[in-house]
Design goal:
about 290 residues; alpha/beta; Rossmann fold; GMP Synthetase, Chain A, domain 3; six-stranded mixed sheet; three-stranded mixed sheet; globular
Length: about 290
């Protein structure tokens, strides 16, 4: 049997379940998941290998109208996802009626590559609503094959993956067959810490935060890590640390447990908090954190 390989890019509005789907395909937690919008900031590749296929999945930030430089950089990751795709997955959830950006929507409806429109969260709907939604999207995106799914419950996830393999072009593998992602280890340290901040802090705090793993030393039985949590203002620093350091300690304990599962060995994690004024609007700072175009 001939070998198939290709890039499968997943796009949609925030909170539609893109990261949940990608993690379900891969069988590993690569993309962080929270209930807050804009959880995904980067374009993350997850690689699934079989004897006769390699599926390179790309999870991108949810589509928004940018309000500052960081969000503009996030939307550049989405634009790049159109450029190298062999297959496009457009995810919507039951009750959604449009994409937040007309230009992106036009790219989907005029795409020359196969498009799968996945109608997610069908476990939260009934048969009548589901039929109405399928009809609505069939009219809006006539070039797409529509598949109802529940990424969280696993409904139709295996069937979608089989459809992806069917639609991929014949090609040798792009990456070594034992590679899981294109991101370095420190990236997942940063994302795991940021996920805990998204979960435990409210309002503006999670969006004003960036995490930078400054040290990563792997020994035989333990990995020693040191990471800095960047905030934009002194008041935010105080909130992150909490009373007698209690809030920061909780983030550290929860992140360490997840990182030990991810790396499969003991982890020692040190966390610090620094003020980095207006980093979200500073082009040089954004480049430093990997948001360069």
């Amino acid at each position: 049997m001939n070998h198939k390989a290709g890039f499968v890019n997943i796009i949609g509005n925030p909170n539609v379940g893109k990261s949940t789907l990608m993690n379900a395909f891969i069988g590993e937690k690569l993309s962080i998941i929270t209930s807050k919008a804009q959880t995904t900031r980067h374009r993350i590749l997850g690689i699934v290998n079989g004897d006769n296929f390699q599926v390179i999945l790309s999870d991108t930030p949810g589509i928004i109208k940018p309000a500052y430089e960081l969000q503009s950089s996030m939307m550049d990751f989405v634009k790049s996802a159109f450029e190298d795709a062999d297959l496009l997955i457009y995810m919507v959830e039951v009750g959604e009626k449009e994409l937040k950006d007309d230009a992106f929507f036009n790219k989907i409806t005029s795409a020359k590559i196969p498009v799968l429109l996945l109608l997610n969260k069908i476990d939260q709907s009934n048969q009548e609503q589901l039929e109405d939604q399928v009809q609505l999207w069939a009219e809006k995106v006539p070039n797409a094959q529509i598949i109802p799914i529940s990424a969280l419950k696993g409904f139709n996830v295996k069937e979608v993956f089989e459809k992806i393999i069917e639609l991929l072009p014949e090609s040798p593998a792009y990456y070594p067959k034992d590679q899981l992602t294109d991101k370095p280890e420190r990236f997942f340290v940063n994302e795991t810490i940021r996920e805990k901040i998204l979960i435990h802090y409210k309002k503006e705090i999670p969006y004003a935060v960036e995490v930078d793993c400054e040290e990563f030393f792997e020994e035989e039985t333990i990995i020693k890590m040191r990471a800095v949590i960047m905030v934009e203002r002194e008041t935010q620093k105080g909130i992150i640390i909490g009373h007698k350091g209690s809030a920061l300690k909780r983030v550290g304990v929860e992140a360490r447990k997840d990182l030990e599962k991810f790396f499969g060995k003991q982890v020692h994690l040190e966390l610090y908090v620094k003020v980095n004024k207006n980093w979200r609007s500073n082009v040089n700072q954004l480049k430093r954190f990997g948001y360069n175009k």
